[in-house]
Specification:
There is one protein chain. The protein is an alpha+beta fold. It is 32% helix and 25% strand. The protein contains 14 helices and 23 strands. The strands form five sheets. Strands 3-7-8-14-11-10-9-22-23-21-20 form an eleven-stranded mixed β-sheet, with helices on both faces. Strands 16-15-17-18-19 form a five-stranded mixed β-sheet, with helices on both faces. The chain has a three-stranded antiparallel β-sheet with strand order 4-6-5. A hairpin with a 2-residue loop joins strand 5 (92-96) and strand 6. Helix 2 packs antiparallel against helix 6. It starts with 11 loop residues before the first helix and ends with a strand. Bound molecules: the ligand O=C1CCCN[C@@H]1CCCn1cnc2ccccc2c1=O. Ligand 87F binds next to strand 11 and strand 14. Residues 83, 86, 89-90, 109-110, 141, 160, 205, 207, 229, 231, 265-267 line the site of the ligand O=C1CCCN[C@@H]1CCCn1cnc2ccccc2c1=O.
Amino acid sequence: IIGMTVSKADNFSAWYQEVVLKAEMVEYYNEISGFFILRPASMFVWNTIRKWFQEQIETLDVEEASFPSLLSSKSLEKEKEHVEGFAPELAWVTKAGDKDLENPVALRPTSEAIMYPYYSKWIRSHRDLPLRLNQWNSVVRWESKQTTPFLRAREFLWQEGHTAHLTEELAGEEVLQILEFYAGVYEQLLAVPVVRGRKTEKEKFAGGYYTTTVEGYIPSNGRGVQGGTSHCLGQNFSKMYDVKVEDPTPKEGEKAGHIHVWQNSWGLSTRVIGVMVMIHGDDKGLVLPPRVSKLQVIMVPVGINKSTSKEDKEKHYDEMQTFKNTLKKVGVRADYDTRDGYTPAWKFNDWELKGVPLRLEYGPKDAAKSVVSFARRDTGEKGTIEIASLTTEIPALLEKIQSDMYNKAEASFRSHRINITNWDEVVPALDARNVVLIPHCLAEKCEDKIKDLTTGNQEEAAGPADAKAPSMGMKSLCIPFEQPEGIEKGTTKCLNPECGALAEKWCMFGRSY
Ligand SMILES: O=C1CCCN[C@@H]1CCCn1cnc2ccccc2c1=O
């Protein structure tokens, strides 16, 4: 069957797998589990993101570099304490040909250990700062959890930015600039709303100082999803790798000391594509936001059949070629489908499955009235457009589709993000596919406890018939920069009934990927 067979509401994970396969975005790499092939439809999305993000970071004078993809166990030694948590994810090369390697090497899971010895070598004076390098590459992390296309893969494409600054303030400024660019990728390109915030001590990058994040929301299962992270590493790595400069402003009469530089690292991966598919897709298949869609308009001839003369058919098709060229001149990526042997209805389904944002139908009746009929992929809305107005109406309609898709997703996230001040309302809220904001003390231990308290226990699962696993506990997603009112007086208690400490901030919690 070429079309969708699974409904999004019935079986979300099966629907997701089917849509990314049938919309020709990915292929499972059957040789090794957890690896996927990215096909042109998804590479177009990724390259659109890459061009936009690259343009943004170039305003910050970020330069591009390419470091080796392998690292020695010796170089990992330096950051051993925080790597130990990640060690099980490292993929090792132990042989070359039939010879064992004296010192096995690991495939990069991220590039700090590869890059920072050279930051130490290159950064000597404060004049070498800020150093800002970004890599577009792929990394390998041998996930033990169930993998799924885009959201959790053992190898994925990403960019990793690594910068060094003279002061904490300069580093902190960049952390937030990059986070805004990440939010822009979601909100401007993918029509996906995100909450900006800071990770708690428990959820931050252990090797860093603090982590800022953009958090998405998947309406189909109410889960939060981490969308991109911008870390301030503080001086942790510069002390590990001895990245220092002479103090440019030594105190009067004192010998200039050294300053360990303040570093950031920031990453966004092809996970963003999975988030977009999950939020916008429907039972007909993919729904692509126009800004990232390889094909924005597909024209399908209608009313052409055996009785249509050859020259009428050719003339009709030539007119669509003209529309295509006209639309190309105003930056619209359009094409037409004149495949013989397929009905218009078959073609409509095929292009809906592939998520093309706008379809134009053009038949002799339309030609007689100098109009084309349109059908929006996101809402199904139909209408007609004067051929004479194509160059203004089509771009405007595509922009409307883009903003309507964003507004719909934003309303859905907003209505499923609820502030809770009564602990007993938390689990019911999660079961109703919400994420929650609760007054929280921000202590790591308290978070652990909250995870346990909100994990459905066995007896609740109604016996053997109910094969469902106990409901997943909630984790902190972020401390939103945008804080609700009500706890600034410092008299509100942490919502965890077993905690008793005072709440520091409203913290967003939810079931998550
Ligand atoms: O997120 C980012 C953004 C891009 C640059 N790296 C940081 C932090 C990566 C954290 N991390 C994530 N998985 C790992 C897996 C194995 C070894 C080390 C690591 C590891 O350090």
